[in-house]
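Sync notes, pocket subgroup
Present: LS, DG
LS reminded everyone that the earlier model was apo-only. Rerun requested with FNR included. Inputs:
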Amino acid sequence: MRPSNPAPEPAGVREFEAAARERLDPVHYDYFAGGAGDEITLRANESAFGRLALLPRVLRGVEKPELGITLPGGSASMPVLVAPTAFHCLADPEGERATARAAATTETIMIVSLASTVAVEDVAAAAPGARLWFQLFVQPDMAFTETLVRRAEAAGCGALVVTVDAPVFGTRGRDERNGFHDLPGGLRCENMRDGDRIRPIVFSPAISWDHIARLTEITSLPIVLKGVLHPSDARTALDHGVSALIVSNHGGRQLDTVPATVDVLPEIAAAVGGAAPVLLDGGVRRGTDVLKALALGASAVAVGRPVVWGLGADGERGAVRVLELLRAEVEEALALCGVASVHDLEPGMVRRLRRPW
Ligand code: FNR
């Protein structure tokens, strides 16, 4: 007799996406999966990694590759962070609490979204020892923005991630078609509490470098600028006291037809010239993607949807599994490339293919 088959364990991030899709409300799946416009950038983020090949070295005597990294806002056991994504309670009832516990278990940094469905204080309380950073959309009311900064500080967040690629909201066709404009019953953006009322998150079309300068004045937390694609902006960021940058196009959810992040990374890394860590997010689905980004100048990457897929497929356990899978893949790829440490990757290990596989 054949043994009864337990549900197969997903063997990669893309399989976790399929498992999450089975379980999630299709409207919520679309919210997580979708991108802006024709989703050209959304697809490009992933496919750009497919146009890069790794060139391994042999006989380097690598016994156990070193994965740990240190960033201005804290250290992590691997160069894979949790990118800020909204509304985790749509993926699992425990929401951001479960994600934070998964980040604590895997000893990596979770960037808590301003649009989280659990307040940052409650995320911190649910996961003692979690390494949290707080993501901010600067709110037009600067006094309220400052309140948010104080709350992030009090909750123990190690850095403030200021997202700058969303002066206005990018329209996502899937949400328009599905009529997905409000959170379902009982769920709210819990960070937007202001006394007795809940404010809506608003975007700030007038956001400028002055706001970044102001933020550096009001907090001693390192400021990480998320959403930089132009080398000149990277240089200006350094002039404004920014501690690190995240090369990001918001996972293809804001301006469509901007380049894939890994395609602009080398230019940004060159512009920054080692003066501050450069991180990347967008389309990272395998450990080999992580190696390519690090070889091309990133100090770490962040993953958005992959963690949501873990959460949607199997709650906290699924989020842990996704992060541990990525860790194992990074470790294996380093060993197979003959590289002893994530700090030793360099551009010569990556070849750009004229045609994708
Ligand atoms: C996001 N992203 C995002 N970014 C941010 O700064 N604040 C936010 O609240 C959100 N919310 C959000 C929701 C969902 C469902 C997604 C998919 C993304 C963007 C996110 O931080 C990151 O830039 C991308 O997710 C990276 O791309 P991948 O890893 O999803 O391909």
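DG: The pocket of FNR is lined by residues 32, 45, 83-86, 113, 115, 135, 163, 226, 248, 250-251, 253, 281-284, 303-305 (CB under 6 Å).
LS: The two ends are 42 Å apart (CA to CA).
Action: DG to write up.
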